[in-house]
TrEMBL record:
Keywords: DNA-binding. The keyword DNA-binding applies. Signal peptide: none annotated. It comes from the Bacteria. PROSITE patterns: HTH_MERR_1, HTH_MERR_2. One of its GO terms (molecular function) is DNA binding. PANTHER family: HTH-TYPE TRANSCRIPTIONAL REGULATOR ADHR, REDOX-CYCLING DRUG-SENSING TRANSCRIPTIONAL ACTIVATOR SOXR. This is MerR family transcriptional regulator. Residues 2-71 form the HTH merR-type domain. The keyword DNA-binding applies.
Length: 123
């Protein structure tokens, strides 16, 4: 199945401008064009956009995303480098999760203090 750029934007959760930007900076290969010259995205393109969104959501810098995308375009001979990029990024994500967990614990502690104060004040 193929999708026009508006449909691809809707399905991917990215804006049309973001899709064009990703194409311009080399994160996505230029999609095929239909007979009218309009971009035509495939399910495979949408899967790749979904993965890019996950990388971005987890805080991977655009420059690393670009390196990963360029390696992907070069094929299977780049598998070990792509794997290493993901391993390194996973480490960063795990560190960020641990940091957020510590922040969550601090928030829970404060909320519990306020719960105790409210309960004492109403007693």
């Amino acid at each position: 199945m193929t999708y026009a750029i508006a449909q691809a934007a809707e399905r991917s959760g990215l804006s049309i401008d973001t899709l064009r930007y990703y194409e311009r900076i080399g994160l996505v290969e230029p999609p095929a064009r239909d007979s009218g010259g309009r971009r035509s995205y495939t399910d495979e393109d949408l899967s790749w956009l979904e993965f890019l969104t996950k990388l971005r959501t987890t805080g991977m810098p655009i420059r690393m995303m670009r390196e990963y995308a360029q390696l992907r375009m070069r094929g299977a001979g780049t598998n070990s480098r792509r794997r290493q990029i993901l391993i390194d990024h996973r480490k960063d994500v795990l560190n960020r999760i641990a940091e957020l967990q510590t922040c969550l614990e601090a928030l829970n502690y404060k909320i519990n203090l306020y719960d105790d104060m409210v309960q004492e004040a109403s007693a």
